[in-house]
Predict the 3D structure of the following.
Amino acid sequence: MIDKIKQLLKEVENFQITNKETMESLRLKYLSKKGILTDLFAEFKNVPNDQKKSFGQAINTLKNLVENKIKDAQEQLDNQNSAYAIYGDLTRPGFAQNIGGRHPISLVKNQVIDIFSSIGFNVSEGPEIEDDWHNFEALNFPAHHPARDMQDTFFVQTNPEYLLRTHTSSVQVRYMENNQPPIRTISPGRVFRNEAISSRSHCIFHQVEGLYIDKDVSFADLKQTLLYFTKEMFGKSKIRLRPSYFPFTEPSAEVDVYWGLKTETDYRITKGTGWLEIMGCGMVDPNVLKASNINPEEYSGFAFGMGLERMAMLLYQIGDIRMYFENDVRFLEQFKSNF
Ligand code: PHE
């Protein structure tokens, strides 16, 4: 009898629990109602009295061995599925999230859009590859007109009817073709000019142009709108309009904002005058309205256009326009915390 138990002890010791199923088979074999231990306890009654002690001890040893083995295996299996086993130490410090940032041009663009949205302008967009009509002809630049030289143009080599838009005024033509006044729209976008690249100019840059057309729109409306904009954008409340020329507006003007002369930078960027040129503007030429089937007898309007690189250079004190296009993370990271 004792020998049989010793053999069972060996068997249990050597038994390998590898998963839930083998663990369960061990339990069933020894601990269940019809298991080996139940039988052994039943036999216990028939054991002669003088052997009862050693036989009882042996059965208990076997029972404890099986129970402990199952308990250990259960713990091990539990651990395998635990958070610790899957993720490791959950109290260790985490990896810092690397927050992305917007490009300074996008920041300024969004700011301009916010300001004009708040006074009822919507946003319109159009293609970067344009036809001659929308970029020039409809804007009162006739073919061979010298005004076209103001905007050195990249033409599509295989078909010079098409070009890379030189300004987003082309979007305004498209907008007028598809919408009747009242029109209040701004057109942000990328534009292209065949210019030598330097710290101050680039062949790619971004503009926001605005168009307002309704009955009885006057030059005073234009001036107030721009004043509102410069106050919101730069916190400056003095502007002046200098006569200028654009084929699509008459009269036309350049807008200067009074930047002040408090710091050395103010002196440098305003060349000692305190004034900074920030955009072009004017009353929409009647020929432009006609080209888009808007009756100039009934409607009038104003337009304006500004370069975003220049705005961002002023707001963030950036010295070289090429920085915007190099995508150097050391430069871009500096704008991280902005909205
Ligand atoms: N389209 C002009 C430019 O690109 C800017 C402008 C827009 C001027 C509207 C006047 C009115 O230079």
